[in-house]
Amino acid sequence: MEEGTLKSPSHCEVTYSEGHEGDTDPFQWDTREDCEVRQILDRVADKWSLLVIALLDRRKLRFTELRREIDGISQRMLTVTLRQLERDGLVKRTVHPVVPPRVDYELTPLGGTLHTTIRSLVTWTERHQNEIAAAREAYDAREAAEVAAV
After folding, report:
1. What's the pLDDT score for residue 63?
2. CA 55 to CA 138: how far, in whole Å?
3. Which of 36-45, 49-58, 71-80, 124-133 is predicted least confidently?
4. Three-state DSSP class for 84?
5. Could you give phi then psi for residue 95, rounded to 5 degrees?
6. How far apart are CA 118 and CA 132, in angstroms?
7. Which residues pair with 24 in a beta bridge?
8. What is the pLDDT of residue 53?
9. Does the pLDDT value for residue 13 go beyond 60?
10. pLDDT of 83-139, one tens digit each?
11. Which residue among 22, 31, 36, 72 is least enclosed by CB atoms within 10 Å?
C-alpha cells in the first residue's frame, strides 16, 4: 500500500484548512472513484435519480408510470437508476404477487430527507433562473466578441 493511503479505500478523510477548524475543506470529496462520498454525490446528483426522487415524493408509482413521466429515459436506464436508488436505501421496491406482476416504487424515509434537500435546490434555481440566464447571455456575448476580434 502506498504511504499515506488509507487502509479503507472507500473512506475519504475530512480535512480542515489551517485556521478553519470545524469548517470542512471544499476538496474533502476525494477525486478517487472509490471515494464513498463522491459515489453518493454522483448518485444523488444524477439527473435521472433527481427526477425519480422528485416523482416519488409522497406517492408510490409503478415502473411504467415513472417511465411515462420521465421524458427521454430508456427502460434500461430507469431500471439501473431504480436499482441503484434501492441499493442506497433511498427507494423501496414492492412486488405484488398478482398476474401480471405489479411492482411499486416509493421513497424510503431516508429518500424523503433527500427529497427535502432537492426541493431546496429547485427553489433556489427557480428564484435565480433569470439571473443565470442573464449571466449566460452576457458570457456568450463576450465570447462572441472575442472570437470576432480575432
Report:
1. 95
2. 34
3. 36-45
4. helix
5. -100, 125
6. 19
7. 16
8. 94
9. no
10. 999 999 999 999 999 998 899 999 999 999 999 888 898 899 999 999 999 999 999
11. 22
In the structure grid, which three cell numbers stand for residue 57, read together? 415524493
Residue 50: Cβ-neighbour burial (10 angstroms; 0-12, 13-18, 19+): middle
Cell of 21: 477548524
* Alpha helices by DSSP H, 30-108: 36-44, 47-55, 63-69, 75-87
**DSSP H/E element including 105:** strand 102-107
pLDDT at position 28? 57
d(CA 146, CA 134): 18
Cis peptide before 100 (omega within 30 of 0): yes
Residue written as grid cell 500500500: 1
What's the half-sphere exposure (Cβ side, CA atoms, 13 Å) at 7?
A: 0
Q: How far apart are CA 37 and CA 11, in angstroms?
A: 8
The model carries a pTM of 0.69
Q: What distance, in Å, lies between the first and last C-alpha atoms of the chain?
A: 51
How far, in Å, are 17, 132, 134, 139, 140 from residue 146 at the CA level?
Answer: 38, 21, 18, 11, 10
Task: Count other C-beta atoms under 10 Å from residue 56's C-beta.
Answer: 24
Rounded distance, CA 105 to CA 51, Å? Answer: 13
